[in-house]
Design a protein that fits this description.
mainly alpha; two-stranded antiparallel sheet; 2 strands; 66% helix
């Protein structure tokens, strides 16, 4: 039997897989802690200077500044104010730069060396560098540790997501993918709760990093991915793991016997694939538009998330709500993209434009605006909800716009562009010195422009999917493929934001 038939026999999502999946899904809470660390650890409280012009040296500065808050941060410890304030955003951007590198490095390594060893290595160094951040003696070491945390956390999270999918049958990939994203959002709220009770930044960094040690020790009990073993021709080991899963699912007398996997496909086509994205006019135009849309989704998503610490009102409540507001985003987008009257394109357009208007509308609000529906905090939550939904849709939409022959290349290029949005996003909240609504206007214009550009792309709902580049120029009835399997493939390849 082949692997999918084997999963059908042992159980696609039995008790054994539920335990494995639950463990890896809960890991997203730790991933969220690391992603959001700088929001509270780098928060800037109100302060008062005794003199208008003072030395930039730390010692005399400490004598003339008074912070009016009951929490500490890297800004209060190392006096990152005025011309030094950019260093907080820089530390955040270094983390996102690390994510970019981690995704590039860990993905191919896990394909070559295996999921489990690469995942364990990434988690180990993630915890180590997380503790370095908590005990950093100066800003320079803190900033560099955040860069390395980004590399290891981003890479580890990507591999753990793949493991989550490869432990279960294909029909449950959408469920496990959605649970992963939802748990990440809930993790943001839990981090805000931790910050509410732990006001000293070093202790907060230490406590929020400590769950990683717990997950690392328990991760040794995780099996290797049976799908990876099978694709590597290690059929006996794959059978052993499937037998163990079957036993955990209550199927004791079941014998799993896999047929030999077909010849291992050598994937040395990344360069030609990327070259095809530039060489063919249709793909070139789509790629340019999609790269910008992915960039904007990341830019607005992380910008609004990190800006939660800059909004008025309760800092911890703002951060918690910025995470919880994502929870309804997934079912919302899945409802609209399957409807003939909305589909992929119109849903993406609507969510991006709504996010853009929600952000831009803040400039129309009077100063110190109050109200349940119309104040900067609520509008930011509206924007976060809709851009999260757009972010979810764009993974599926992009995979359907590219032919199978260049799909991985297209998704890879778009995903890399996405990380640049995350790198730039931390600096945008600092534009509030020009006006409190300026950061929102930047997010709003980006969202609107991406939304209108999406109108230039074709709809893919219930449309045949191209397998080769030549199929893009052939009649539709010659390209009809299995839409359901492609959608499952797209959900499987959703990487963590």
């Amino acid at each position: 039997m082949d692997l999918d038939e084997a999963f059908g026999m042992v159980g696609e999502f039995g008790p054994s897989q539920k335990r494995l999946t639950a463990f890896l899904v809960l890991l997203q809470v730790f991933v969220a802690f690391q992603s959001m660390l700088i929001v509270l650890v780098g928060a800037m409280p109100e302060y008062h200077l005794d003199h208008e012009v003072i030395s930039t040296n730390t010692e005399p500065l400490a004598k003339h500044i008074r912070f009016a808050s009951n929490f500490t941060s890297i800004a209060t410890e190392w006096y990152l104010i005025r011309h030094e304030a950019y260093k907080v955003s820089l530390a955040s951007s270094l983390y996102f730069a690390g994510l970019l590198i981690g995704n590039i490095i860990f993905g191919p390594l896990s394909d070559k060396l295996g999921r489990k060893p690469v995942y364990l290595t990434g988690l180990f160094f993630d915890v180590i560098f997380g503790y370095v951040s908590a005990f950093a003696p100066n800003y320079e070491i803190f900033a560099m540790s955040r860069f390395f945390v980004g590399i290891t956390n981003g890479g580890m999270a990507l591999v753990s997501f793949v493991l989550t999918q490869e432990y279960v049958g294909k029909s449950f990939w959408a469920l496990t993918g959605s649970l992963t994203n939802l748990t990440f959002a809930v993790g943001i709220a839990i981090y805000a709760l931790l910050g509410f009770y732990i006001r000293e930044w070093r202790l907060l960094a230490f406590v929020s990093n400590s769950p990683g040690l717990f997950f690392f020790l328990l991760s040794f009990m995780l099996p290797e991915s049976p799908r990876w073993l099978y694709c590597q021709g290690r059929t006996t080991e794959a059978e052993s793991i499937l037998q163990h899963i079957a036993l955990g699912n209550g199927k004791e007398g079941l014998a799993v016997k896999l047929k030999q996997c077909k010849a291992t496909v050598e994937r040395d086509d990344s360069a030609p694939g990327i070259l095809n994205l530039v060489k063919h006019p249709v793909l070139r135009w789509r790629t340019v538009i999609l790269m910008y849309i992915w960039y904007v989704c990341s830019f607005v998503y992380y910008g609004l998330t990190l800006n939660a610490g800059e909004l008025g009102g309760n800092l911890y409540l703002n951060v918690a709500l910025s995470g919880l507001v994502e929870v309804p985003a997934f079912p919302l987008c899945m409802f609209f993209i399957e409807k003939p009257w909305s589909g992929r394109r119109k849903s993406t357009v609507a969510f991006l434009i709504f996010a853009g208007f929600a952000c831009i509308f803040t400039m129309c609000l009077p100063e110190n605006a109050e109200g349940f529906f119309f104040n900067p905090s609520i509008l930011a939550l509206y924007g976060k909800l809709t851009v999260s939904a757009a972010f979810n849709i764009i993974y599926i939409y992009t995979s359907e716009l590219y032919p199978t022959a260049v799909r991985n290349a297209g998704l890879g290029v778009c995903s890399m562009t996405c990380r640049f949005g995350g790198i730039l996003a931390p600096f945008v909240p600092s534009l509030k010195i020009l006006g409190p609504s300026v950061p929102f206007v930047a997010f709003g214009i980006s969202g609107l422009s991406a939304g209108f550009l999406t109108l230039l792309l074709p709809e893919t709902l219930n449309k045949p999917i191209a397998e080769t580049i030549e199929d893009l120029h052939t009649p539709a009835n010659q390209m009809k493929k299995n839409q359901k399997m492609l959608t499952l493939w797209a959900r499987k390849n959703w990487n963590l934001r």
